[in-house]
Design brief:
Chain lengths: 226, 226
DNA sequence: CGCCCGCTTGACACGAATCAAAAAGCGTGG
DNA sequence: CCACGCTTTTTGATTCGTGTCAAGCGGGCG
C-alpha cells in the first residue's frame, strides 16, 4: 500500500504507517524528510496513496517502453499528488529535492476534490498547449514562470518584480517536462541569461529579473534574441 | 449563458433554452442537430455550460495570441464537455460534424463527477506524453487508435480485428491535436496506407486493417517504414 | 586534491516545418 | 451527366529548429 523506495531500494520512509488500519488522523501526520530521487510510488503499482507536498518538490512522470520519459507535472508545497490515478497508478512520483510529504485522507469534501481536480486538469492542459505549439525558448520561459509561482520566495528582489526561487529540477528533468533535450534547455537558459532576463547562481538559485518580458516570451508575443 | 454561434454567426441552436430559469429537467432535453463548425462556447467566455455528446464529435481547443491553435481533446458520444473549466472557460468548443448535444445538470453524483474528471485527466496526460515524446508517425497511429475507440463501429470488418470509423477531424484538426502540421499528418497517413495498416475511403471513412501493428507503432515499439 | 557528475558549448545530422504546386474531392449548375 | 470552381489533400523541394554526438568546463564531495 505504502510503497516508497529510497534512491537505491532501501527501507520505506513511513515504516510505521504500513500497518493496516493505522490511518487514524493519518492526514495530520507529517512524514520524515525524504532525500532527493526518492520514488514515492511507481507507474503501474496498485493502490493510490495521496499526499500533500509540505515542502520540497515532487515530479510525476510516465515512461515509454523504450525509456523515453515525460514528466507530467512538477509539484510544489501545498499541492497534491496521487489524485485521480485510478486503482493502478498511471504515473510514478519521485522527489527532486529534500521533500516532506503529508498523507491526505481519501475522503475529501466534494468542493475540495473538485477544486484539486480542476487545478490538475488546468495544469495538464496548459502543458498540452506548451508541448503542442510552443517553441523551445517559449517552453523554458513558461517553465520558469511556473516554477516561480510555485517556489518563489515571498521576499522579492529589490528590482521591480524580480523573483528568486530554488530550482529543484535538473536540466534533464526540465527537458523531460518540456519535451526537449537537456542540451536545448541549457542553451535556452544561456540565451535568457545573456538577454538579462534571468540570473542563475550556485547552480540552482534562479532569479527572474524581468518577469514581464519573460511572460511575453512565454506567450509567444516577443521573440528571444539568438 | 447559452452561447452558440452557427458557422457564420447565425441564430443560436437552442433558442428556446436561452430564457432564464428554463432549466427544469434540462438534463433530459435533447438538442437539435448542430451543423459542423458550430462554436458551442468560446475560450474566455463566462459560465460553464456542461453537455454530453450524444452523437457526432466536438473539439475543445485553446489558441495562442498569434493564432497557434492546440486541440485539447476530441470528444465523441457519451463523453462530457465543459467540466472543470472554472467560471471562465479555458477552452473553446466546436463541433466537427453534425452533432447532437444534451445538457447535463450541474449537480452530479460525487462518484460520477470523479469518474469524469479522472477520465479527462487521464486523457490529457496521455496527450502530454504523446506531444512531449512521440514522433510524428507514433502520434498519428495513437490518434487513429483513440478515434477508433471513440467512434469505431461495433460492427467490425471481416478481417481479424479491423475497425472502421468516420473520421470527423480534418487533416488540419488532427495536426492541431497532435502538435504537427497538416502536411506531416497527411504524409504519415499516406505511409500508413502504403504499409497496409489502414485504408481511407471517401475521404473520411477510415479502416484500421491491423490495430495490433498500429498499437506497436503508437507505443514506439515498432518503426514505420519510410 | 582529484574524481565525478551535472552543465555548457560546438559541430553536425535529421525530422518536421515551410513554401509551392499539382491532384483529388465535392457541390453547383449548365 | 459532365464541366466548372472551390476546398481539401497529397506530394515535392528546401529550410530551419532541435536532436545527437562529442568535447570541455566547473563545482561539490569524498
Amino acid at each position: 500500500m505504502l510503497q516508497m523506495l529510497a534512491p537505491h531500494g532501501a527501507t520505506p520512509p513511513f515504516p510505521n504507517l504500513s500497518a493496516p488500519l493505522a490511518e487514524v488522523r493519518i492526514s495530520q501526520v507529517t512524514g520524515p524528510l525524504l532525500p532527493p530521487r526518492t520514488m514515492v510510488f511507481r507507474e503501474g503499482s496498485a493502490g493510490t496513496p495521496q499526499y500533500r507536498v509540505v515542502d520540497g518538490c515532487v515530479a510525476t512522470a510516465q515512461t515509454l517502453s523504450d525509456g523515453r520519459r515525460q514528466i507530467i507535472d512538477l509539484i510544489g508545497p501545498g499541492r497534491l499528488i496521487g489524485l485521480g490515478f485510478g486503482d493502478r497508478n498511471r504515473c510514478s512520483a519521485e522527489t527532486l529535492g529534500f521533500t516532506r510529504l503529508e498523507a491526505v485522507s481519501e475522503t475529501m469534501a466534494q468542493g475540495e476534490r473538485d477544486q484539486a481536480f480542476a487545478e490538475m486538469l488546468a495544469r495538464s492542459q496548459a502543458l498540452v498547449m506548451l508541448l503542442g505549439r510552443k517553441t523551445a525558448p517559449e517552453r523554458v520561459a513558461s517553465a520558469l514562470l511556473d516554477l516561480a509561482g510555485q517556489f518563489g520566495r515571498p521576499a522579492r528582489d529589490k528590482r521591480r518584480g524580480a523573483i528568486t526561487f530554488h530550482l529543484y529540477p535538473t536540466r534533464g528533468d526540465l527537458a523531460d517536462w518540456l519535451g526537449l533535450t537537456l542540451e536545448t534547455v541549457s542553451r535556452c537558459l544561456s540565451r535568457l541569461k545573456k538577454a538579462g532576463l534571468i540570473d542563475i547562481r550556485q547552480g540552482d538559485l534562479v532569479t527572474l529579473l524581468d518577469p514581464q518580458k519573460l511572460s511575453g516570451i512565454a506567450a509567444g508575443d516577443r521573440p528571444l534574441s539568438p
